[in-house]
Specification:
CATH class of the largest domain: Alpha Beta
Structural class: alpha/beta
Largest sheet: 6 strands, parallel
Number of domains: 2
Number of strands: 8
Helix content: 40-55%
Length: about 250
């Protein structure tokens, strides 16, 4: 093999190996920051798997009631001016769900289920994409109903230090999304106009709320749910953060 051919092949192999990280530094995005709800990044399924394991017969019903009351209680408390943070909402919702499904929620089981919220990990696709966003110079932040304690614990547990920050909790204004005051926190903390912040939602209701507020909005529809009938159309939708990455760098 001639020396020129060898150098050409070696350079091609090197560029191939570096293609994805390098690509992020050369492709520009129209966004300067991404504000994530908690659950496009954090995977809550182990919490609910634990509930089903602790209560094999009534686990599905318990989980269904717990998840529904988490959000219903947050909205009811805001509407009634009786705010408590999402940690307390989650604990109260669990007690109700246990009573509704007639399971014995011992203090030990209650503690185990609540502690699981402090040990969340990421969905499998998340970390490589967040690393490429960092290389591209994009700020990735949480803008979540989760309490500061929950966000801090999850950031550590999931290995998100240096990848996602700041961790903005709606607790700062004692309300929950879709209250416009909650979405305004992203503009204030990131010091950017809303047009330069892509809001990344997990729930269809949150995607609608972000659009009402005026954010460009992407829906990571991991559960393949239908859109809500709330007169709000998202700017993009996909199944995971790989789809989000393609949208962000689409130009």
């Amino acid at each position: 093999m001639h020396r020129r051919q060898f150098v050409t092949l070696a350079l091609g192999a090197t560029l191939t190996g570096l293609a994805r990280p390098a690509l992020a530094t050369t492709i520009r995005s129209r966004f300067r920051a991404l504000a994530f709800d908690g659950f496009p990044i954090l995977d809550p399924r182990p919490v609910f798997a634990l509930a089903r394991n602790l209560f094999p017969e009534q686990g599905d019903a318990l989980v269904s009631n717990w998840r529904a009351r988490q959000f219903e209680y947050s909205w009811l408390r805001v509407a009634g001016d009786r705010y408590v943070d999402f940690w307390q909402v989650t604990a109260d919702a669990l007690v109700y769900a246990a009573r509704a499904t007639q399971v014995e929620l011992t203090p030990e089981k209650h503690e185990r289920l609540m502690d699981a919220w402090l040990r969340l990990k990421t969905w499998p696709d998340v970390l490589p994409v967040l690393r490429r966003f960092r290389v591209a110079g994009l700020t990735c932040a949480f803008l979540s109903n989760l309490s500061p304690r929950m966000l801090e614990a999850a950031t550590a547990s999931a290995g998100l230090e240096g990848l996602v920050g700041p961790a903005i909790s709606t607790d700062a204004v004692r309300t929950y999304k879709p209250d416009p005051r909650a979405y305004q926190l992203g503009v204030d903390r990131l010091a950017l106009p809303k047009e330069q912040i892509l809001f990344v939602a997990f729930g269809a209701w949150d995607a609608a709320g972000a659009k009402w507020f005026g954010y460009p909005t992407y829906w990571v529809n991991r559960l393949q749910q239908p859109a809500e009938e709330l007169a709000a159309t998202v700017d993009g939708e996909g199944r995971d953060l790989n789809d989000l990455e393609r949208f962000v760098f689409a130009g």
